[in-house]
Every structure is written in C-alpha cells, then in structure tokens.
Write a structure and sequence with these properties.
heterotrimer, B: 582 residues, alpha+beta, five-stranded mixed sheet, four-stranded mixed sheet, 29% helix, C: 310 residues, mainly alpha, 13 helices, globular, ABC transporter permease (chain A), transmembrane (chain A)
Amino acid sequence: MSTYLLRRFLYMILILFAASLLIFMLYALMPGDFVSNNMKLTAERKAELREIYGLSKPVMERYFNWMNNAFHGNFGYSLAQQKPVLTLFNEYIWNSFLLAVTSTFFTWLLAVIIGVIAAYKQYSWFDTLVMIGIFAAMSIPSFFIGLFLIKMFAVDLKWLPPGGMLTTGSNATGMEFVREVVDHMMLPVIVMTLLGVGSLTRYFRSNMLDVIRQDYIRTARAKGMRERVVLYRHALKNAMLPAITLVGFELPGLFGGSLIIEKIFNWPGIGQLYMQSFTVRDYPLLMGFTMFIAVLTVIGTLLSDILYHAADPRVRL
Amino acid sequence: MKKILMTLLSLTMASSLLLAACSNDSSAPASDNGNQAAPASSSDSGGTTAEANTAELLAGPVAASDMSKLPEQAKKRTDTIIVGLTDPSGAFTPYFHQSGYDGNVSSVLYASLVTVDDKGLPIPDLAESWDISEDGLTYTFHLRKDLKFSDGSPLTAEDVAFTWTILHDKAYDGDSEVSTVLRIKGGQDYKEGKAKSIEGITIIDPQTISVTIEKVNAKALLTLGGNVLSKAYYGKDYTFGSLDYIKKLHATPVGNGPYKLDKFIPGQEVRFIANEYYYKGKPKTEHFIYKTTEGDTWQFIETGEQDYGSFTATQDNIDKLKKLGFLNIVPSTGSSYGYLQFNLEHATLKDKKLRQALTYGLDRKTIYVDANQGGAQIANVPTAPISWSYTEEGINPYNYDPEKAKALLDEAGWTEGAGGIREKDGQKLTIHFIGSKSKGTDIFIAVAKENYAAIGVQLEAEQFADFNALSSKFESRDFDLVSFSTPMLIDPSDGVSSFVNGEVKGYDNPKVKELYDKGLETTDIEERKKIYKELYQVINDDAPYIFTSYRKSVYAYNGRIEGLNVSPFRGLATSLPDWSLK
Amino acid sequence: MSSISGSVTKTEAHQAAVTPIRSSLWRQALHRLRKNKLAMSGFIFIVFMLLACFAGPLFSPYADNKINPANMNAAPSLKHWLGTDMLGRDVLTRLLQAGRISLTVGIASMCISVILGSILGAVAAYYRGIVDQIIMRVADLLLTIPGLPILFIMGALLSEWKIPSEYRMYIVMLMLSFIGWPGLARLVRSQMLSIREREFMQAAIVLGLNDRRKLFNHMIPNIIPLLIVVATLSIGGAILSESVLSFFGLGVMPPTPTWGNMIDAANNLIDFEKHPWLWIPPGVAIFTTVIAINIFGDGLRDVLDPKQKK
C-alpha cells in the first residue's frame, strides 16, 4: 500500500507538471489577449502594454516565469481586478463552497433514500413518479428552473429573497446574519440539488437492483431477517460501494463554482469570476484557478481509488 | 476619455464593445434586460403599428401611477438608495482600473475638472473656469476655492499636476488618453526618463495650472479635465517607473466626489456614504449603494430591493414597467451607434456601388427596430441623435429597396449566375460576415441571409464566442463584413476618428481627412456643426460602414426618488448629489 | 404499467453460464423486449418523434422558415398552432426542423462517448499493469484540462481552416468525446475490476478462454446494464449541450433551429412570463424524448442483463 501511494504521488506530481504546461499553452493559444479587449487602443499603445504585461515574450519563457513565481507562492496579480490572485480566490471561493457543500449533501442524502426506495419498489407508482421527476429536472435547462423559482417564491409569494447572499444594505451580524444567508441560499441549493439528484438516484437505483438480486440477499431473507435490516444493512452497503468512487470526483466541484446558478441567483461565487476573467483573458487569474482545480482533481481521483480499495479489499490497486 | 466612455456602459445600453460577448446570452449589462422580441401585432402593417406604438410609449417620461404598490422593502429605506451595477471589481482609482464598472464606482467617488452637460458640451466642475490660448495650445484651469479631498486635505494645482504626470509614467497601463493621444509638451521625455518633470505643465498658483500641448486638439479640454488624484495620498510612495503600489490603494480611495467609500463587499455591494467635503455640499441622501447584479434585474426591481434599473425600450419591457406602478419611467437614447464595417482591403468591396447596394438590400428596420420591439432606431450617420452634431440634412436614409439594390449591382457588373447568385469575372458574390454570438446577431443573420439571397448575394456567417475571439479574427482580416458598436461617444470626432486614423483599413478619402482635421481645429460649436454635416454627407454616400442602429432605452426608478436625472454622457453621477427620498 | 413489465423481469430462471448460439440470444432478447409494453411504447414514441421531425416539416406551409415582420411573437392560433417567434416564424415548424438536428446530435454524441469510454475503461481494467497505468494517467491529465479554452481554440481553428459551419458542430462533438471519456472510463474500470474478481471469471480463466472471449463475452455483457443507464441518462444532456456549443459559435448557425437554441432564446424573465409558447414546446419535446429514450433503455437493460435471464 505505501509503495503504491508513493508511486501514485510521484505520478501525481508528474501529471500536474504536464497539466500546468498544457493549460498554460491552451490559454496562450486562445484567440485574443488581455490587450485586445480594448479596440480603441492604437497599435503602438497595444505594443507598449504587451511589453508592460510581459505578453510580448515567448510562451515558454512566460510559462517558466509563472512556474518559478508559483513555486515561491506568488501567483501574481489579476490584470483586470488589480488584486493578488489568492486574495480574489479567498473573497469568492468560500461563497461557492458553501452552496456546493450544502447542495452536495442534500443531493447524496436524497439520492440514497429515493434510489433505495425506487429500487425496492421497482415499477411501482413511486418509482415511476420519481423517474418522471428526475427526467423533467434533467431535460429542462437550469436557468428555467431558477427563473421559475424566483418568479414564484421571490416575486409573487415574497417568501424568499430574489437573489444575492445578503439583503442589500444589511448590517446583520451573528445569528441574524446566518439566518439571512440561509434564506438566500435556499433557492440556489434547491436548484442545484434538483439538477444533481437525478443521475445519482438512477445510479443508486440501478446498483441497488443489482445487489438485491444477489445470492447473499436471498440468503439473508431466507434466514428470516427483517426486510429493513436486509435492505439497509446488507443491500445498501454493497450498493454504495461503486458510488464511493464518485466521492473523490466531487472534490473539485465543491470549489469550482457554478456559472449559471451564480448568475441567475446573483450569488457572489468563483464561477462568475472565472467567466469574467475568461472573457478578458486575465491570464494570471485563469492560470491560478485552473491549476487549483487541477490539483483538486488529481487528489480527488487518488482519493477515490484509495476509497475504492478500502471499501472492497478484493480489488487490487 | 476612455474612462468616461466606459462609465455608463453598465447603466445604459447593452452590448457595447467590451461586453458584447460577455459570458452568456444575457450578455447585456445587468441593469439592461434587453430582450429582442418584437411586438405582437396582428395587422399586416405590423411594422408601422409597432413604430407608432413605441413612439407613443416613448414620447416622454411617465410618472409612477400607483405608489401604494411600492414593495415593503423599498418603503423601509429612508436614507439609502440602491442602484444595480453589473460587476465592480474593487479597483476604484480613476485612470487605473481596467473595468468600466469600476469606472462607474469611481465616478461617484471623484469629481472632474470639467464635465459635460446633456448635449455633450463642457461645463465647469472642480475647475471654475478655463482659458484657451489663441493658438489653441495652452489650457489654463482655474480651480474653485477651498476644494477638499474626502479626507479633509486641500485640493490644489499640485494635485492636478501630479495626476497628469503619473499618467506619463512608463509603467502606466490604463487607458487614459492624456499620455497617449494628447501630446503634452515634454510628456514623451518624461516617459522615457529623460526629464524629471513634464515641461508643458506649469503651476501658476495653488488654484491655477496651465498645460501646453504640441498639437491642437478639440478633445483636449475634456481629456485634461478629468478626475484629480491626491498627491499626498497617491504620490507618497511614487518613484518613476513603478506604479504597483497604487494597487494597494485601490480599495481605500481618497476622492473628491459626492460620496466616499464606506464598504466594498466583493461580488455583492459597494456602499457609499455622503462626503461632507464635497464642494457642492453634502449630498441629500446619506447612503448610496451599487448592488452587483449579473443576471436579470427584474426580480430586484419588482421586490423593491433595487431602486433604479435601465432596460431596452421594448414594448414588453415598457408594458411591464408601467404595470408595476411605483416606478417613474424615462426614455433615453444612448450616445453610441452600431455599424457593419466592410473589409475595404478586399478588391470587390472597394466598389462604392456594391457597398451601397448591400446597404439598400438590407432590411435594417426589421432587424433593428421591429424584431427589437422598437428598442432601437435606424442609424445613417456616425453620430448619435442626442449629439449636437446630429443631422439628417442631405443624408441618404437608404430605405430598404431590393430593386434599387439589384439595379446598383447590375451597374457594378455583377450579373446573375448559377443558383441565382450573382457573378463577376467568374467570381461569386458571397459576403463573409463575422460577429459575436448574441441574440442580436442571430436575428441579423436570419434576416440578412434572406434579404441578400433575394438580391442574388450569398451571406456566409460566422459567430464568435466572445469579443476577444471576434477581434482576433477581425485582426486577421479574413472577413467581408463585421458587426460592431462604438463605445459611448462624447465629442463628434470620436465617432469618425476611425475613418482617418487607419482603423478602417483600406479606407482613404482625402476629403474625409480634411474635414476631420478641420472639425478639430476649431472650438466654435456652430462652425463645427457645419463641418460635421458635410463630413457626414460624404461618409453616408461613401458607405464604408452600413450604419445600423442607435439603441433606445428606458430607465425606471422608484417614484419616491426626487431629483434624478441621467446624463447621456456621464450617467447617474452628475445628478446623484441631488437625489432625495420623499 | 408497472405490473406488466414487472411480471416479465421478476420471473427469473437462471440459464447456464455458457450461452449457446449468439443469434438465438439476441432473438430471445428481442422477443422479451417486444413483450415489455412500457419499453415498446417508449420505442414507438421515439420512432414517432423521428418521423415527425424528418417528415413533418414537409407538410408545413411555413417550411421555408421565412421571416414575417407582420406577425412577430403571435400567440398560438389556428394558423400557427404553437404561435410565432420574434421574427414571425412558425414555432411548430421550427420545432420539428429543430428535432432533426437535436436528435441526431444527441444520439450520435452519446454513442461516441459511451463506446470510447467503455472500451478504454474495460481494456484498462482487464489488462492492468502498464496499459492500465497509461490509460488512467492520461485520463487524470485530461480531467485537469479546462474545456472552455479548448472550445475557443477550436472555434478559431475551424474558422481558419474554412470548415463550413454546418459541419463544425459534428467535429466539435467528436473532439469533445475525445476529451470527455475519462469520467465514464473510470466508472467502467471500477465496475470491471470488481467483476474481474468474481467467481465466474475464475472459471473462465480455469477454462483457458482467450482474452477476447473473456473480455467481450463475459466481462462487457456484465457492464451493459450500467452502460445503458449512463447512455440513456446522457441523451438529455447531449441535446442540451448542443445549445452550449451554439453559444460558443460552434453549434448550428442561425436561422437553423435546434431544441436547445430555441429554449435558450427565452432565457430571461420577460420571455419566461410573456411568451410561454417560445419555451414550452421545445421544453416538452426534450422532456418527452428523454423519457421515451430512458423507458426504452430501461427495458433494454432488463432484457440484456445476464443476471436476469428468463
């Protein structure tokens, strides 16, 4: 196990290096750069600015500069926002994390419960209803669900705030502050959960169906165990197994932010920031953020492999 | 001037240059719910009906009809006004921010030496008056007495000189034209490190400063008359060649405008508090908030979380605003124009007749007015209807006329070939169009394809994901026709400079150059009017662009607010100190 | 509808692990599928949708997709059953025309990525060792690459190479499948790893079966149920993702409609409230198609699952 981990760790470093180069190249190859945002600049001024930003240097040199600075913990200043990249992350990423963690929790909780029941009562009305609901959520774009909820709960019924993270101009502190944030989180979390719960439910349902038919479940039933015990202790545990690999993959998603949700609900998250930086080709910020997500992705995959082994020791790593 | 051009972007009209391609379909700045739908009209003359309706709807301001509908949340606010702004980033130092939204914020924090009235004519702000020398090269500004920064320190000619100087630093990366377009005497020497100060700037006394430029420029007054930075604050750590320290001061601006910064919550709000040192006196409303709104703003207006919003003047939007009842609605037209630029380096497009035919053959009314529910009007000259230079005299309106287009194409030697597409010397008449991906471009392509097919021209369209991708395609010169829109234009020369400074590659008309120079050499408005009229007639006939549209908008605000007025050039900031809640 | 199909699957009778002649296996499956009424109704709906989309517009008086300034944004009426859009075009006709592209794109892109992902995942799990390492580490690398810049670069390249815009979307879809396989490959691999350790595989090894037979006759059939679930679930996403490509200028060009870009055209509160006929029809079309495909996929899964042979 430890040699395996060591080897995987080395691979991880290698992959991250390869990824950083590849990602840097991709961003550099994108049409347009930070200077070409502004059409009104004269050609000389553009050249001057490219000199100031170091954009006139060869790509490899720029890459090594970036790498060198990154090693010293310096991820540079955002060109557009004029702030250190890390400061910006700190300002936005936790807001996205809050939404993602909450909705991921509810997504898994609901998916497990619904998935198990739907599998146990395969082809019942409950199963059919759940299926239709899931497909409805999956075939309607998220902005529609978002608009619909805003229209209904915020504009017409006035039960929940229409967007943002705090009431504008609010000076709430302590518990009041928490309440306000929870109120504002409600709608986006509902939408994100709705969007995510579908495929996960289907996944659990299908695993559960697989497991229910296995011999040991039959044995357990034959032994006269109570149905609930069979279902939740024996079947669910085994049905969860393949799902454990998915846990690691959720990791980057927790910090990645969601562009559409953040936009519809006016949530101050990192997804928005990334998209804006993208349209203006704000390289330091793009590079910093993408590498951050890349690191999480690589850790996430390693994590899921290890978890898989832990859950099913038969599987050699 | 770029700052000012950008200042209003988010508050007024939608897809201006920088934002044309922003993120996704709601690319328009937040406060603008530009929807491109057209009026539901059952009569066959739908077009005209729509126009009549909109004309009536937009005839003038409409006052709130039923204040009892005002939402609770808006009623509760007694000393705070909230306005939406797409996305301020936190760099609030004028001249140094990279985003137009930060420009909106700094326009509240800083007053300028000279500002403009509703017609775009210069009026005093921090400077009480100014003199321009006979030769038009030396500008002398007389500051008001007892000006103070928001920290209580005095504002003097020293600060003005410092502001102009720092813009000439070689590390300066902003878009102020003081150091790039304007040629201040000795400015270049300073930039290159050959001089310790700029020769052309002379401080006469603490309230008087003069500056000499090398070449006459009608825009000089407004370019020089921008915001003033405090030397004591922003100049404390300044050494030539390094401006990085300013980034650390972005979040704690020391200004001289109506409000000072209270708190910036990234991605959420910019809170302001009235500035007691403002030269016109402390503003009437204690708190002002710019609320970050990325997507739709309707929900915030409807629930009273926001007091002001700007919308494209479509029938749907106007109907909905009127129905809400608690809003005052005011129509306005932006100061920019949209256009389709020909690639004049392509031999076929050098032919004026072909360009005119393509203009006649395009049903601009359907694309820009009808499909947009009257949210725009047709353009034919490179200036906006609100500008003092606007004229329709002697201007060909190029009304949609496929027959005329066909006749012109025949004259130009393009005859019908296989598949109904015209040919000349074995070459097919295809037009390669590029534009950024937006609803407006979708509509254009759908209609233009049909229009041009009808006159025997094939339109091949390409769309690009964002402005940057489009502009790099544009720079590769691989296109025949490209769709753009200008930023906000203040001086009429802004709207025509691209025809003479080489920006429109392949366009070279000596008459245009001559008139352009003449227009800048005098500061007499009446004389300039005459010159621009002639210039517009020449360009209108020459058709290097197909002028498309002027966008129309309505802004709506909480009926409790009094004293609100939106300047087409400077936005909310000019009237902001007078806003009060009744 | 539950009882009918339930009776088919619940009556289980195990067959010998070694299957006889292939064709009869498929015939059996087909037979059982035909008896599953729910699955068949899904299948019939898909056929109906395809027919309507490909043949329907031929009977429409508005098939030329002409703009009509006199009749913009009209509500549904006898002349225009589903109303008209902001350029006065008939929504019903456009809906059917849109279906052609959306269905093709949805099914094609789903097939490519499922095939690619499952083969690579299966190969990695079966051979282990260096093959596994290479495939999985490439997958790791691909997972770290952001998609957005790739779309932009591709947009610029396709434009430079003068690829006609009607083909661009397919090239882009293909490219996206090429970088999009790691997720599915990992899933397939993990399933295969556990199958590999099952008793019947030990038996296959003892019997001395060759690699190809072990892989394709014994291992892959065991993951087919999973693949069907993944594939049918991804169809809806694939149909919608076409509109994402359009958004980047890489999808179809206007005025050609697709379900995705029709629904996207109404993504603001005003259209949402005032012109429901713009977004309800494409929404319902996607929804029903996705349901039909999934019902059919479920039936197929039941029929093909080696663990529940009749």
